[in-house]
């Protein structure tokens, strides 16, 4: 890996465009886990203290039809300002006059956040014209969004080729730490993969089963696999049109000697809300109007036993709907098992992803993991051995 860092640029009196990942979990307008913001602060502070105008670019959520309040980055600004310990300005668009005016008004050493890049279709299309509109705004490009580096989008890929480019301190730290921890992982390697982003992660699992020895599935991901095996999952979150792909992954795992672990039981409820009446049910015993909201105790015991045989554990995605009690139980329990194995020195553990880090914080065990990455999908793709477009663009 050879790329420039903040040591190689001269940011004084320059406008520096920092591609950050402000895609943090937000509930009712409040940031519920500020890890990504806190980890971004060293780069912002360093550039500000060197006299740059610091302009932060980021996506937030997955808006598909232009601007909407729910996906506005405005709601993240107060939490970023808290993390930074300084005021943070905001512009209501990431290109054009609103952005230009806000940058003109910015003093050296100040930080500005521009509105969600994904409000423009050109971002996800890696559109050169959109990248050029972004490039016009600044003199230097710094990419500190390791967690978005698996996306070849205008702000992570095309823009890096239009301005002098460098990696930020977080990008640098993530790449160094992951290479050290997982460059030559000790076997057996177990991956715990859960969460709700099923379709985008399925592709990744197909490669991952070729790299890891154990794959423990949870959340909507597990439901999709149960469904693919002919289990009636009722009203559970599952991507039923992905069943063929799930079966292909199961077949590849079986042929290659990777054990895929699926839940043996789950907490099922009729409503997706905190303290909804629930019961523990086995796969095959789920009514049409019930949803699996968490893994059950038999699953926790089974996963715990298997994870104890691993030397390396990587984790992305919660076991259930950990944001609503009591459906955080399995995520908390499995997190505690991995934390205890790490403390005992038998396992090296790396976890990543916005929701995952929030879940581990919630379980009170984040500090016990060997390394916490701010990245979810990007860290799994890195683990697959894929070249990340956002990193590659910095190297060129
Ligand atoms: C993430 O939260 O994993 C990153 O911010 C990337 O988001 P995306 O999966 O919507 O591209
Ligand atoms: Mg992700």
CATH superfamily of the largest domain: Phosphoglycerate kinase, N-terminal domain
Task: Please report which band the strand proportion falls in: under 5%, 5-15%, 15-25%, 25-35%, 35-45% or over 45%.
Answer: 15-25%
Which word captures the global form?
globular
Any idea what the CATH architecture of the largest domain is? 3-Layer(aba) Sandwich
Report on this model:
It catalyses: (2R)-3-phosphoglycerate + ATP = (2R)-3-phospho-glyceroyl phosphate + ADP. Substrate binds at residues 21-23, 36, 59-62, 118, 151. Pathway: Carbohydrate degradation; glycolysis; pyruvate from D-glyceraldehyde 3-phosphate: step 2/5. The protein has 396 residues and is an alpha/beta fold. It folds into 2 domains: 6-168, 3-Layer(aba) Sandwich (Rossmann fold); 185-383, Rossmann fold (3-Layer(aba) Sandwich). 37% of the residues lie in helices and 17% in strands. It is built from 14 helices and 17 strands. It has helices at 35-49, 77-84, 96-105, 121-124, 128-135, 169-182, 198-208, 219-228, 243-256, 297-307, 329-343, 354-363, 377-384, 389-395, and strands at residues 15-19, 26-27, 30-31, 53-57, 88-91, 111-114, 140-143, 165-167, 189-193, 214-217, 259-261, 266-269, 278-281, 291-295, 312-316, 348-352, 371-373. The strands form 4 sheets. A 6-stranded parallel sheet has the order 5-6-4-1-7-8, sandwiched between helices. Helix 11 (329-343) links the parallel strand 15 (312-316) and strand 16 (348-352). The radius of gyration is 21 Å and the shape is globular. Residues 21, 23, 62, 147-148, 151, 354, 376-377 line the site of 3-phosphoglyceric acid.
């Amino acid at each position: 890996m050879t790329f420039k860092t903040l040591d190689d640029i001269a940011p004084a009196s320059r406008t520096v465009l920092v591609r950050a990942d402000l895609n943090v979990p937000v509930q009712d307008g409040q940031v519920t886990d500020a890890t990504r913001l806190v980890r971004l602060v060293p780069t912002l502070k360093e550039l500000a203290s060197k006299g740059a105008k610091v302009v932060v670019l980021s996506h937030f959520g997955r808006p598909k039809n232009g601007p909407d309040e729910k996906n506005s980055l405005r709601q993240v600004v107060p939490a970023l300002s808290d993390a930074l310990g300084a005021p943070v300005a905001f512009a209501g668009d990431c290109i054009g006059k609103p952005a230009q005016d806000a940058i003109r008004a910015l003093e050296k050493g100040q930080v500005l956040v521009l509105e969600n890049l994904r409000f423009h279709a050109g971002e996800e299309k890696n559109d050169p014209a959109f990248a050029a509109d972004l490039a016009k705004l600044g003199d230097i490009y710094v990419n500190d969004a390791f967690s978005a580096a698996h996306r070849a989008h205008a702000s992570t890929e095309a823009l890096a080729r239009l301005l002098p480019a460098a990696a930020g301190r977080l990008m640098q730290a993530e790449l160094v730490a992951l290479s050290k921890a997982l460059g030559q992982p000790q076997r057996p390697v177990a991956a715990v993969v859960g969460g709700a982003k099923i379709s985008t992660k399925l592709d990744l699992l197909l490669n991952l089963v070729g790299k890891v020895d154990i794959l423990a599935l949870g959340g909507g991901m597990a439901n999709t696999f149960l469904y693919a095996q002919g289990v009636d999952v009722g009203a559970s979150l599952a991507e039923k049109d992905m069943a063929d792909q799930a079966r292909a992954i199961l077949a590849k795992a079986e042929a290659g000697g990777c054990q895929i672990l699926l839940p043996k039981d789950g907490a099922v409820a009729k409503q997706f809300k905190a303290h909804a009446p629930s019961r523990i049910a086995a796969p095959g015993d789920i009514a049409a109007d019930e949803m699996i909201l968490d893994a059950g105790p038999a699953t926790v015991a089974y996963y715990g036993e298997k994870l104890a045989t691993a030397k390396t554990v990587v984790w992305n995605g919660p076991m259930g709907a950990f944001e609503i009690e009591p459906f955080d139980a399995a995520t908390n329990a499995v997190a505690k098992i991995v934390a205890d194995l790490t403390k005992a020195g038998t396992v090296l553990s790396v976890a990543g992803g916005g929701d995952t880090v929030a879940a581990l914080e919630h379980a009170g065990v984040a500090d016990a993991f060997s390394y916490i990455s701010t990245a979810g999908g990007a860290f799994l793709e890195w683990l697959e051995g894929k070249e990340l477009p956002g990193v590659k663009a910095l190297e060129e």
